[in-house]
Amino acid sequence: MPDIHVSAAVIVDDAGRVLVVRKHGTTRFMQPGGKPEPDETPSQTLIRELHEELGLQLDEGDLEPLGTFVSEAANEPGHRVVAEAFSVSIASAEVAVQAELAELRWITPADAETLPLAPLSVEHLLPLAWPVADR
């Protein structure tokens, strides 16, 4: 199964909600982020993508590495996504849909039960944002 390498952000607001986004022409929500350009590090990729997609101005000191996670790709059948994930804390008013994004939502654990989500979000990233005790 071919790999798609991405950087992804687990963004939590002051209310403990997690930001998920949906790209144009897709149905599943996922953590914001994207694919690297040549010679970009994972953190550089994420900083660029969050600026392009959400208007965020971040630097490497704003990112806390969470690790590397692998899941089935949400929008590319027959592929798997290999994500370098980072945690970011911001105020929910700081973001706006831009670029290829169609929609964003700040979700709670209850919202996650009914929203169509990417496998990477369900299997790895949302559990990092909401420890079992919070669900």
Mean model confidence by pLDDT = 89
> What is the string of SSEs from the N terminus onward?
EEEHEEEHH
Question: How many beta-strand elements?
Answer: 6
The name of the CATH topology is Nucleoside Triphosphate Pyrophosphohydrolase
Q: Give unreliable regions as ranges.
A: none
Strands of the largest sheet, in order across it?
3-1-5-4
Number of helices: 3
Give the amount of beta strand, in percent: 25-35%
Oligomer: single chain
Number of domains: 1
Model description:
- This protein starts with a strand and ends in a 6-residue tail after the last helix.
- The longest helix is centred in the middle third of the chain and has 13 residues, at 42-54.
- The protein has helices spanning 42-54, 109-112, 119-129; strands spanning 3-12, 18-23, 33-34, 64-72, 80-89, 101-107.
- It is built from 3 helices and 6 strands; from the N terminus they run E-E-E-H-E-E-E-H-H.
- The chain is α+β, with helices and mostly antiparallel strands and 135 residues long.
- The chain has one domain: Nucleoside Triphosphate Pyrophosphohydrolase, CATH 3.90.79.
- The protein is globular and about 40 Å long.
- The strands form 2 sheets. Strands 3-1-5-4 form a 4-stranded mixed β-sheet, sandwiched between helices. A two-stranded antiparallel ribbon has the order 2-6.
- The model has no long low-confidence stretch (mean pLDDT 89).
